[in-house]
Request: fold
Amino acid sequence: MSTLITQTWWMTHRRLQTFIRQPAFLIITLIQPVIWLFLFGSLFKRIVELPGFGAGSYLDYLVPGVVVMNAVAANMWAGMGALEEIERGTLNRFLITPIRRSAIMNAAVVEQAVSTTIQSVIIVLLGWLAGAHYPGGVAGVAVLIVASILLGTVFGALSNTVGMVVRQRETIIALNIFLLLPLTFLSTAFMAKSLMPGWMQGIAAVNPLNWSLDAARAALTDSADWATVATHGGLLVALAVLMVWLSTNTFRTYQKSV
Reply:
């Protein structure tokens, strides 16, 4: 176990150095969620007046949706990094060393978690500056950020899996386009569940993006529903562990192909 932790630390240190040298990437990836936050926040602010919406401020309702949507969008590009390491030969060199495959994937998860945390905090602060309120306080915001990290881990691991198996940028781009908007609009990111058609509500119930929203919003209320947080948070943890395991096992598939 200590060997795995040490190897994960050094692999994470390597990835974070690259991340620090490219701060522009962090800023660029925030442009779209900021546009969604202020565009949708202004355009649909009166939607809370609809009977059954159940929120006093649309901006309060929207911030968690933008945070989790950004987590999916940013982490779905993780496979591009895997492709770059394959093309440079870096991944091949790691795979012939004694380093554990899980350490390589753990480092990717930690680096993506750091990036997602920074972006989520910035979006929360921008929402607060625009007038959003977080009755759940620091604990509620923390649950929102952890939920976004877990969701990002799920889709980051999926992207890495596709990158190592298919090894085509076009496939990762197509996967991003195919999943992001349908998953977002088949959730309660922008619309209250009570106002969604029945078939949409059914899909939202099994949508991981919606699990993170349910957990976050349950914690952000002035009387937090910790049972809902635990239930949906547990589902996210289980799915994240499964996807990381799957992504780690694709190393074997990749090794057989080279």
User: Anything to note?
Assistant: The chain is about 80% helix and 0% strand. The chain has one domain: 22-257. The first helix runs from residue 2 to 20.
